[in-house]
Records
---
Amino acid sequence: MRRFRGSILALGVLLLVLGIAWWLDRSEAVPEVSPDTLFRFDKEDLVAFTIVRPDATIEIRRIDDRWTAVGRSWRPNRAMIRRVAHQLHDLDARANVIDDPEAPEVYGLGSDAIEVTLELRGGERLAFRVGDPNPTSVSYYVQVLSSDQAEIGRVYVVKKASMDYYRLDIQAFREDRIATFDAADAVSLVAQIDGGQIEAERTGPLTWQLHAPVEQEASRDKIRLMLGRISALRALAFEADAPGDLAPWGIGEDAPRIAITLGSGEVIAVRLGDMLPDTEPPQRYAYLEADDAVYVVKAGILESFRLSADELRNRVLLGKHAWDVVALQVTPPADEPLRLTKTSDDWRWPDGAVISGSTPERVAGRAAELKAIVFHEIAPGGFGPEFATVQLWFEDQLEATVRLGRRWEIEVPDAQEGIGGRTEGRQLARIDDRETIYEIDDGLAEVIEDLWREHGRKLERDADKRLDEVDPGN
């Protein structure tokens, strides 16, 4: 036997290795019956759900196309509503545990279990109890109480993500975006801050008029920034509902107040109170009038409203783009106008010849997208000498005339110490019959000069071509 001992040991090791390999490589056993389907419904059909917990009952219901927290002053969290619908609309069991257990408390399904009822469009009701996590804490026990898909009374194991949120604090079901709206729906904005007032009114799809602190066209970008700060306002904490006296939070009569009116007539009004001590990021109290509730929000909201009249002024002079322009005409002083037209794929000279290069598009873009740097009631040093008049025709049948006046250069100091500054070109401009004189950069004048040079070279080529046709020998 001694002679074969080594061989026997080697054979044993080989069998052990083969056994381990088989164990690791074996296919997952396929159950004879697939996991039970618990619920199947269209997410859009969910119209209500009720969560009965030992500490509270939460009823969320869709009323007149708006989700409402029944019996509560606050609005329900739309993300949580979407989560309920998403997690339950196609829920399958991971495993079947037991039918009608004699001791449901073993699975956390006793008297202190959470009970959830869903109501669907059409009157169907689905219900279940939420128990404890399973021993591995990756699944939850549930007991189905009402479903046309699953066995009533049976205990199942389901994925953790479908059930764990029912145990969250009740505030998790409360909407934390306290003033959500679409900026396109806003028709007016009034902000009373630091003893001053900003009042703006929508005058068109893309235009606003400022009534305070001065009467002038308002910067659409600045108005949208202010509207965006309110619509994105989130509650970091829910401080008090129906507080009555707002003094404990520093929200008095002179507190900053921002009111936005929507096209529907709804007014979203927020008053801002004291800063909270030692918070990062800085936080302050906010009172939403429609909710009659005090929240804690990020403190930086007011910075977007502390703007001067000059900062609020509209600097976009025409509000168009190069692709809006279908024709343009540039007229130098005491000279013939140069008219260019755009076809579907290119720009053309007055004689119909295609213009190579991007210069016409650059002229159209510079003119259509003009922005003011400084506003003048009277032209400093006079408006002239005039440089050119640019006429633009747009796809929407509108047109505009830009008169370009005197040009000059300014020194712009470099922010980096020890390095010299640079020069920038400036020019005066007038738009249509507006009385205001605008100071702009001279980028439009520069591309107009390029256009004139290209047109001059074209005229020379045309003259040479005609000469060759008259006298081919020369």
---
Amino acid sequence: MTWNVLAEIYGTIEAFPHCDPYMLAWSYRKTKIIQEILNNSPDIVCLQEIQNEHFLDFFKPSLGEFGYEGVYKQKTKEIFTSPSGKRRGGKYTIDGCAIFYNKKKLKFVETYALEFSKLIKEASVLTLPKEIQKNPSLVKRLLKDNVALVILLECIQQYSKIYDKSEEKQNKKLLIVANTHIVANPEANYVKIWQTQILVKVIEYLKINFIKKYETIPSLIICGDFNSTPSSAVYQLIYKKTCSRTHEDFNSDKYSLLTDLKLGHNLNLKSAYAISKLLSQKLNPEEYNNLELYEPLFTNYTSNFIGCLDYIFYNDENLNIISTVNVADENQLIQEAQMYQLSDCALPSPIRPSDHLPLIAQFEFKVF
């Protein structure tokens, strides 16, 4: 499961004027969020917009009661500004990404946290033209406080269909799970491209090192809120392994910050929802180059924006997609609004505690 749960600091009446105050109250929404997670019982949960104090005081203990363990990475404070948080009790609070996993089925191996501002600052020395490097204000345009979290998990063998104690080492199942929340600003598509390129290259590097270290090829799932629609350069970069510099998203790069950035990766990523939809229609995904047409119509539904921003990507080298849980359609949201006598079917709603909808996919390890 992946889900942007809408942090308390962003759930304001100014941002969501269609909501009654109780619908935005964290005390109300947090219960709905936990119920949604537990009702689906996912083995892995990737959450975005988790405030640091909520991870420690609510999510970790609440999910811990049901056998989950979690890791967390909050956004960086290096470029912290007031829009990213609010004063609470004399200190700033900030959100981030969390990954929870079922301890009965999965064992923690190691984790890696990405701070995009730090990595981009380091990469800019090699990839930005010298004249731009001399202008700190231009480099600063790339430095946003977004993060990603990567965890390496081992599948506990009794849950593997091919469990054989004598071949436990050979059958070791490792899984890389990455969770991210890419910058939201619609005028900063060039930053989204930068962050996504950094993300896939770091994961590529980690995967190579995990193979050397553990002598097995780990499976890979990347998910999160990419703040990018299926028609975006970000989506193209992820699933086509590169993207055209003639894409309209490059028009936002007014200062040529992308000019020397090498774009591409070798992760061979597929979209769980797009592939699942094709398979459900008895179509061969290998014959389709336009997977973006098979994504959900929306995962984010507000008064100001309706579109698909959230994804579950995976490498099909040793994973099969089994199924995905259908995302609510507009008719369903309209019916729910009518049931509660609401004038707007936008999210959040009394029964949907975030402006984003959760995505849920079921995978199985391939047997060779």
---
Amino acid sequence: MRKDVPCRVSFGRMSLGAAIAAFAVGLVFLPQVAAAQWVRDTLPEPPAGKTWKLVWHDEFDGETLDADKWEIPDNRRRDGWWSPKAVSLDGKGHLVIKTFKEGDRYYDACVRTRGKFEHAQGFYVARIRLQKQPGHWCAFWLYNTSVNKVGNEGRDGTEIDIMEKPWLDDRVQQTLHWDGYGKDHRSKGNVAVVPGVIKGFHTFALWWKDDEYVFYVDGKETWRTSAGGVCQVPLYVKLSDEIGPWAGDIRKAQLPDEFVVDYVRVYDLVDRRP
């Protein structure tokens, strides 16, 4: 593994996105004190002659979610309701998806890049602080309706769950789904045990290769698989919270609860410059 792009540091009025771009082409010089503040993504060692290039990201700076990057559905979902009113930015560079009860209805949310950013092979990473109460679970996943196609396994569409967290312990669920969700549905999953994952921020990542998927938590590989054949069509990014019995009894939760996302980044392999 090797270290690469930083997590968060202040550049005054310059946004982190602009700073990353500027730093990449040598336009930003970091003094020694500032450089010490950089917290870096851990990226896999690239193949010979290749390097990683940041191709899409959101640092969740500003006051409102960037509508050019994300959409927020408003519909019933399992035992709750996905609603824009459960989505906010905290002004400190974080996306907050809240779970709460209003009247007899439970609310949570999903944000997705459908129609705005859809991508295939690459390295996907998000830095997330997980929820703390039972009855609901957060997820970082890739999806497209092509997952409903049947007949070519997952090559023509796979739901890739980089992280789902229905348990309030050290377990993290990672799963692939393909061939729809009916009688032909197939899936393959892994439960990674990550001590302390329920506390603080952690990174959850996927290296989607041509011939396999490699999953990571905090820069450490947790699962490697090519189950279903590897998806060859673009998928979009989803960050969601869902309410249902898989995660326990929502009636026992002390609400509101939330999960918090520091950033989402997508990298591609490109030729290394001589």
